[in-house]
From TrEMBL:
SMART domains to which the protein is assigned, alphabetical: ANTAR
Listed name of the protein: ANTAR domain-containing protein
Stored Pfam families: ANTAR (PF03861)
Organism this protein belongs to: Streptomyces kunmingensis
Segments forming domain ANTAR: 22-83
Cross-referenced InterPro entries: ANTAR, CheY-like_superfamily, WH-like_DNA-bd_sf
Region Disordered, annotated ranges: 104-145
Amino acid sequence: MTSHDPRPQPATDEQVSAAREKAYLEAQVAHLSQVVHGRAVVDQAVGVLLVLGRITPAGAWDVLREMSMRAGIPLRQVAGHLVAYARTGELPDAVRGELERHIGAARQPGRMRAAPRSAPDGPPSVPDAAEGGPMKTVGPPSTHQ
């Protein structure tokens, strides 16, 4: 007759090592997931700025970075606000002020090259840089002569 000892046995070195490796890999996966999500939001915000400012991708990145620094808000948070703005039209005042200022500056001659404009599916909202005023709706260029 064999007896079974109900007390737990101490983990072997191999089991301890495997458990540590598993914990490490799970932490890495969680970290990389956050990085990928954060990068996706930043890339989407750059896209929003491309449409709003009709500027180059490099120019949009510069605007996003400058907005973050001047508003004192982390870059990913500013990016999140811009992506939400594209869906809802709502933007915190500090970010809106920086957006209007930077898009107006980005459109000044010699500041940043404008990207070639293609007709969008719908009219995007862009700041009125000439007036420095509120957001307005701008449609695609007219094809009528």
